[in-house]
Amino acid sequence: MKLRILGSGTSSGVPRIGNDWGACDPADPRNRRSRASILISTDTTRILVDTSPDMREQLLAADTIDLDAVIWTHDHADHFHGMDDLRQVAHHTGRAIPGFARPFTLDQLRTRFAYAFFGRGGYEATVDGAELPDALTIGDITVRVADQPHGGITSAGLRFESHGTSIGYATDFNVMTNEMRGIYRDLDLWVVDALRHAPHPTHPHVGATLGWIGELGPRRAVLVHMDNSLDYATLAAELPPGVEPGHDGLEIVL
């Protein structure tokens, strides 16, 4: 199983509009962060998690057009407003792409992008939407799901398992529940939100994330959804063994 980090940034990306790099060194390409998304794949299966506004460039960089499914974590704009670019994937595959989300998120997606789910004006649907259950199998990848508190809504926390390996993806949450602990224990790789050093009301800060990493004990952890206050090299030097900042284009094969 392989993970590719398509986007490692927060909702405004790095740099922010106005070439605002914050504390990030603009000379380090690992600091250029598009909006959060990942690709999970095996030799036979590819699952995209979230359709960020940067999806087109992300999939071009990954040289990927074949997708077996999309999973949306929640309905915030930085995680699904790239929906329209699924048209090209559907044109390539000749079918609507299976897309999964929790019921509230799916309702929001269908409302805002009705044409993608139902077609319009002679154009066929590009997404075959379905509710995301607590567990499902896509190709040779098993997915387990937990609801994560994220301010006034929830996001879907994900655990992927295939051929004896496991990857967890936890973004956009601010509380660690026992249900979440159940899917994030004993992971080979945990990709997890760490927005900044200062506390935030709806995202974990670096200290909180490191505490959960210590508690849950993944064999390797990668931090994502980082804003422009976290310089890659500076943060990498501060993190404990087995924990590293993510960056756009990082690929990890298990």
Automatic annotation (TrEMBL):
<feature type="domain" description="Metallo-beta-lactamase">
    <location>
        <begin position="34"/>
        <end position="227"/>
    </location>
</feature>
<dbReference type="InterPro" id="IPR036866">
    <property type="entry name" value="RibonucZ/Hydroxyglut_hydro"/>
</dbReference>
<dbReference type="Pfam" id="PF12706">
    <property type="entry name" value="Lactamase_B_2"/>
</dbReference>
<dbReference type="InterPro" id="IPR001279">
    <property type="entry name" value="Metallo-B-lactamas"/>
</dbReference>
<protein>
    <submittedName>
        <fullName>MBL fold metallo-hydrolase</fullName>
    </submittedName>
</protein>
